[in-house]
Specification:
The structure holds two protein chains of two kinds. By secondary structure, chain A is of the alpha/beta class. Chain A contains ten helices and 14 strands. The chains are: A alpha/beta, B alpha/beta.
């Protein structure tokens, strides 16, 4: 059984561990800087195992060296947004928080695949890649998978059909900077443009764009945890089980889609080596322009990182 | 909830197994051969401590045991044996479907009925006429299986996860099925962007003959895992009111320009059976293919009716 380490045992980290346990994907090491926090959650999850019938090992530790020999390391630590703030505003604080963690990953899990969730996720995926010096196939972000699932859910709600039937692609950045091409939203393969008028589709896209913010404004003191946790678990499952499933994820581009030296959300195939393949699609002109605008914002952020 | 499966051959038993593995409902297996359904159901329940399902599975040769089922699946029918003409097979299976449908109307008058027996689109019609059920409560299992096969072949060709692939195969279940590659996607990406036309054509051809390909390997049997999983998926959509869009054989009244026949089209399948028929804008060529397939079904139906087989 492979080992997955989740650094940061907040709500999202624990939700990811829960989904991984339910599916029996891998042994899990939860890490948190606060002593006892990861250990407590690990025990809680383990004690549900007789009821839920999983038998993977779930452990917790406040010592980061416990990530040793992990196949996948997830970084969920960092400050989260408060209502009415942008993810980009977290950049400076969160760089400081993940800097030492990146060093630890290099030291203790040099062969791992790193999954970044810390906001602003697209820029910090780039930062992590550069700082670890890992191969570009080994460092990915989680944004797109989560945004896709929100588009699917909003679409299913609008149509009154099952969400498992809906697929979508989300490109570029996260939140305000995500690019959602309507022609790739499909229900059982049927383009949504055949099922709904343009006004309804626009509504779905704007709802999906604001989905995280909507939850934050309802919960006030907490951000969403289940959908990000599920997105992490799905991402890890694809890697561990070498499923080669397609995900939209921030990944490093070297000429694909005409971009270089940037991390940007694009469809990729995930497998045991991380990013097995970047899928290049023909995009319409307006979507290409939107993607460029999204890339411009991310490039600016990356420049401010000074690496 | 109670689901009855009439006909406990390989397809019926595989359907039961998929249902209990997902704990969809209690299952009753029926078979005309005394002891057969009883034996199969005992075999399945004796795996339950290992597989951890706790729905009940029971088997009977007495068809009245389907009483008050929420869903009834009919897999009963004769397979085509060497030396037997399609004509003979049709006659036998119409007779079987007629008698089974009479029992369903008597003992499970509120059930949603899923027919699996071939010739699919014709026997679904027989079941609808004999039971007198509302149109939305009789559905034929075909498109979901053909689509599943097409999806698998696409996934296999691309080396991607089969769960990522969607496909729509319309029309009749057989050589005249109508695969719609422009609605086939990998994670929403049209398959035409990922594979050259010639490869897609090759996969379509393989899909058309997929059932036969398996028969040619097995020699004395035919596919049952993929048909069983297809039927079980439909049952689950009904029992759990999932409202999924699945290509199934549904009775059309003018949709797609077809009237008074069963044909494979995308439907929303939920608690009441066919919740909605989704009409796609087909190209002239696709429409022609669909109509050609419907015309063949109509010919047989007319024959059945003119000879008073039902």
């Amino acid at each position: 059984m492979e080992k997955v380490s989740i650094i940061g045992s907040g709500n999202v980290g624990v939700a990811a561990a829960f989904y991984l346990a339910e599916k029996g994907v891998a042994n899990i090491m939860l890490i948190d800087i606060i002593e006892g926090k990861a250990e407590g959650s690990a025990l809680d999850l383990s004690e549900a195992s007789p009821l839920r019938g999983y038998d993977i090992k779930i452990r917790g530790s406040s010592h980061i060296e416990s990530i040793k020999d992990s196949k996948v390391v997830v970084i969920t630590v960092g400050k989260v947004r408060k209502p009415n703030t942008l993810r980009l505003e977290l950049l400076e604080d969160n760089v400081k928080i993940i800097d030492p963690i990146i060093e630890d990953i290099k030291n203790y899990a040099p062969n791992s695949i790193v999954v970044v969730l810390t906001e602003p996720v697209t820029s910090l995926t780039y930062y992590t890649l550069k700082k670890t010096g890992f191969d570009r196939t080994k460092v990915i972000g989680v944004a797109g998978k989560l945004d896709v699932t929100r588009v699917c859910e909003c679409t299913a709600q609008e149509l009154g059909v099952s969400p498992v039937e809906v697929s979508a692609l989300v490109l570029g950045g996260h939140h305000k900077f995500m690019v959602i091409p309507p022609e790739f939203i499909r229900v059982c393969g049927i383009p949504i443009t055949e099922l709904l008028p343009k006004g309804k589709i626009d509504k779905i896209i704007s709802e999906a764009r604001e989905a995280g913010t909507t939850i934050l404004s309802l919960l006030k003191k907490q951000t969403s945890m289940y959908s990000p946790g599920a997105a992490i678990a799905e991402t890890i499952t694809a890697i561990i089980n070498d499923t080669r499933a397609i995900f939209c994820l921030p990944t490093y581009l070297d000429g694909e889609y005409g971009f270089k030296n940037i991390c940007l959300g694009v469809p990729v195939q995930l497998g045991k080596n991380g990013v097995e393949k970047i899928i290049e699609l023909e995009l319409s002109l307006p979507i290409r322009e939107e993607l460029q605008a999204s890339a411009d914002v991310i490039n600016k952020t990356i420049e401010s990182l000074g690496i | 909830m109670k689901v009855s499966i009439i006909g406990s051959g390989n397809v019926g038993v595989a359907t039961a197994l998929f249902l209990v593995e997902k704990r969809v409902s209690n299952v009753v297996l029926i078979d005309i051969v005394e002891g057969w359904a009883e034996g199969k159901s005992l075999d399945i329940v004796q795996a339950s401590p290992i597989r951890r399902y706790d729905v009940s599975v029971s088997g009977y040769s007495d068809i009245s045991m389907i009483k008050d089922s929420n869903v009834v699946v009919v897999t009963a029918g004769k397979p085509r044996l060497p030396g037997m003409s399609r004509e003979d097979l049709l006659r036998d299976n119409v007779k079987i479907m007629k008698s089974v449908s009479e029992s369903i109307a008597e003992y499970a008058p509120n059930a949603v009925l899923i027919t699996v027996t071939n010739p699919l689109d014709i026997l679904a019609y027989v079941a609808l006429k004999v039971t007198g059920f509302a149109l939305k409560r009789v559905i034929g299992m075909a498109g979901i299986l053909d689509s599943s096969r097409f999806r698998y072949f696409i996934a296999d060709e691309l080396g991607v996860s089969p769960g990522n692939v969607t496909a729509l195969v319309l029309g009749g279940h057989g050589d005249l099925m109508v695969p719609l590659p422009r609605y086939s996607t990998v994670h929403g990406i049209p398959v035409s962007e990922l594979l050259p036309r010639a490869t897609i054509d090759k996969l379509i051809e393989r899909t058309r003959k997929a059932g036969g390909e398996i028969v040619s390997y097995l020699k004395t049997g035919s596919a049952y895992w993929s048909p069983g999983s297809s039927a079980a998926e439909m049952v689950e959509c009904i029992i759990r009111n999932r409202n999924r869009i699945i290509p199934c054989s549904a009775y059309l009244r003018g949709e797609y320009g077809i009237d008074g026949l069963f044909a494979g089209v995308p439907i929303v399948i939920g608690r009441n059976g066919v919740e909605k028929i989704i009409e796609l804008s087909l190209t002239t060529e696709e429409k022609q293919a669909l109509h050609l397939s419907a015309d063949k079904v109509r010919e047989v139906i007319e024959k059945i009716e003119s000879e008073n087989m039902i």
